[in-house]
Amino acid sequence: MLQRLLIQNYAIITALEIDFSEGLNVITGETGAGKSILLGALSLILGERADRNVLHDKARKCIIEGHFVLPELEAVTAFFGEHDLDFGRHTVVRREISTAGKSRAFINDTPVTVQQLSGFAGLLVDLHQQFDTLELGKQDFQRAVLDALAGHDTLLARYHESWKALQQAGRELEERVREREQAEKERDYRQFLWEELDAAALKENELEELDAELNTLSHAEEVKERLGILQGALEEGEQPLVQQLRQLQSGLRSIEAFHPQLPGLAERLQVTAVEVQDIAGELQRVYETVQSDPERMALINERTALGYRLLKKHGVQTTAALLQIQAGLGEQLDQTRRLETDIEALEREKARLQQQAERQAEQLTAGRKKQAAPFEQRVNALLAQVGMPNASLKVSLMPAPLQTDGQDHIDFLFDANRSGHYQPLKKVASGGELSRLMLCVKSLVAQSMELPTLIFDEIDSGISGEAAKQTGVILKKLADRHQVICITHQPQIAGKGDAHYFVYKAHRSGQVTTHIRLLDKEERILQIARMLSGEKPSAAALENARELVEG
C-alpha cells in the first residue's frame, strides 16, 4: 500500500506530506483547491511524463517521493529480481525533475528508467481518473476484465508465447518463400553457368600453366638454337669455358704456396668450374626436352580459348577465380534445394503452433464465456445499487480470427432504459453512467486482482443522493481488501472514509499554495456539513453529517 506521499516544489505545492491509512482514504476540498494536483504529482512516481512546467519555483528541483509497504506477491518480487534491485517490504520510490526539466527516477535510491518505474507502479497502484471511463468502451479493457475474473494470467502468458512463436514462424516462412521465389527466377541461369564451368573441368592454375607451356612451344626452335650455342660455349668448341676454368685453376694451384690467399681463390675457381659444368648439363637436358609439337599447341590453343572466354564472361583474371565462382554457384543451387526442405519444415512447425494457439484460445474463450453471465448479473445488481435500476450491461462474445489475445471479439453492450436494445457502451452511455459503471466493474475486478492500492479521482461524477451513498458503500467494501484513495465531492462518500483529508489553498507572501491536512472526527463532521449545505452549515446539516460519519 501507499503509506506516505511527499511532494516538494510541484505546481502550486511548496511542500506537502501525507500519511495514508490502509482502508478508505477520502480527499475533499473546494473546486480548484488542488485535489487533482495531488494525483498529478502522484502520477509522476507511477511513471507518467514530466517537464519543467511542473516546477513551482523554477530555481529548485521538484521531488515526489512515495513510501510503499509492499505485499509479498510473486510479480513484485520477480520485478526486483529481474531488474537487479534489492527487495524490501518498505520501499521508497522517488522522482526528481531538475530545473532544466531533466527527469530522474529511483527505487530505494537505485536509479531506474521511467519505463521500469511505470512497470513497477503498475503492480501496486491502479489510478482511475475521470477520462479513464473511456477505457470501458475499448476492446482491450473489456477483454482484460473478463480475463481478470477468469484468472487467466497463466493461460494468457502461455497463449502469448504461442502467439509470438506463431508470428515468428509465419515471418520466417514468408521470408523463405520470398527467397525461393527469387532463387527460382535465377536458378535456371545459375544452373547453366555452373554446368558450363563444370563441363570445362578446369584444374587449379591450369590456364596459367598452359600459357607458360604454349609460350615455350611457340619459341621451341629459337630456344633450342640458343641452348645449343650456350651449351657448346660451356663444354665444346675450341676453347670451352669449363676447360678454361680448369686451366686457370691449375695455374693458380702452381703458385698457391707463395701467398696465403691463393689457396682460397684456387678453391673458388674449382667450385666455379664444377658449377659451370653442372649448368652445361642442365642446358643439355633442357635442350633435349624442348620439342616443337604442333598438335600439342593446337590442343593448348583450344583449351586456353575456352578458358579466356569464361574469364571474360565472368569478369575475372585467374583460373582460381573461375573455380571460386563455380563453387559459389554450386552453393547457391544447393541453398535453393535446401530452401524447399526449410519451407516444408517451417510449414509443419507453423501448423503445429497454429493448433497449439487455437487450443489455448479455445480455453480462453471457454473461461470468458463462463464469466460473462455472472459478470452481467453482478454488474447489473451494482448498477441498481448506485441509482441505475433500469440500466443493464450485456457481454457480447463473437468468434474472431486468431489474434494477440485469443479468438474473441468482445463488446460490452449497454441499455440505460430497459428498452431491450443494447448498443456498444461508447455510443450510448453518458459520462455519469460511465463513471458509475466503471466503479461497478472495477469493484468486481478488484476482487480477482492482487493490486494493493486503488485510486479514484471523482468517480462520483454526475451522481448524488442515494446513488452517492451506495457508491460510498461499494468503495468501503473495496477498502476491506484494498487500500482505496478517493477524491470526492459527495458527502455520502466522504462519510465512509477511514481517513479524511482536506485540501485547501493558502495565501502567503503574495503566493497561493496548496496544503492538505488530516481531519479529526469533529473537523470531518464540520467539513461534510459544509459539503451538504454551504460554508455556514445548519444544525440539521451538522446532524446529518454526524450520521454519515458515525453510521
UniProtKB/TrEMBL annotation:
Residues 166-223, 329-370 form a coiled coil. Belongs to the RecN family. This is DNA repair protein RecN. The keyword DNA damage applies. Signal peptide: none annotated. CDD domains: ABC_RecN (cd03241). The lineage of its organism: Bacteria, Pseudomonadati, Bacteroidota, Chitinophagia, Chitinophagales. May be involved in recombinational repair of damaged DNA. The keyword Coiled coil applies. Keywords: ATP-binding, Coiled coil, DNA damage, DNA repair, Nucleotide-binding. It holds the Pfam family SMC_N.
